[in-house]
Amino acid sequence: MSTQKRLEGKIALVTGASHGIGRAIAKRYADEGATVIALGRNVGALEELDDEIRAAGGKAVLLPLDLTMYEKIDAMGASIYERFGKLDIVVGNAAVLGELAPVGHIDTQMFENTYAVNVTANFRLIRSVDKLLRFSDAGRAIFVTSGASAKGRAYWGLYASTKAALESLVLSYAQEMDDSKVKVNLVNPGRIRTTMRATAYPGEDPETLPTPETITDIFVDLAADDCPHHGEILRA
């Protein structure tokens, strides 16, 4: 890891920060000098993350929140402005797998819940922080997608379609930012050792997979002032 702190003085919001990829991004951003607003549902895991960040000399603010609490997401941008006066980086990482099942057999409540977290919550997140990102000298919006979105795949219709919808939403937002200082991108992390991956592939040996910590470089690159990418889907 570089000793240069590329995100010094930045304010970064990371969703799904209590575990997996979001946790790894939050820790890396703190190591790079950012003040991290760590959003997640697991209070205990967030507190452990906070302890680790502070022990390493970093700064974190915990935001225990379910992303489907839309009214609180809507109010979040104003709250961040009141406390910090700005927001430089947002990482929309939180997602759920839903269920792997034939499309005709997907539970309707499961369908709605999965779209609520994977798509609607990110839409509300963009609405909430859009003005703050525009105020930043180098606003950065980064969203985590999946290779599952690329084409139809039996039994993956629910999760894959949410990621396809997310990509369309974010790429549209990116085009709307073409004349601003904000850069918007998506990252496909590939095969990574996460709880979601273990649920989707129960017979797979997790020790054969890279850890979330191994893919944080691209999230720093996309968050940095010198980021050359905009409106792209990049592979970690």
From TrEMBL:
Molecular function terms from GO: oxidoreductase activity
Keywords, sorted A to Z: Oxidoreductase
Top-level taxon in the UniProt lineage: Bacteria
A Pfam family: adh_short
Keyword Oxidoreductase: yes
InterPro entries, A to Z: NAD(P)-bd_dom_sf, Sc_DH/Rdtase_CS, SDR_fam
PROSITE patterns, sorted: ADH_SHORT (PS00061)
Protein family (similarity comment): Belongs to the short-chain dehydrogenases/reductases (SDR) family.
The protein's name in its UniProt record: Oxidoreductase
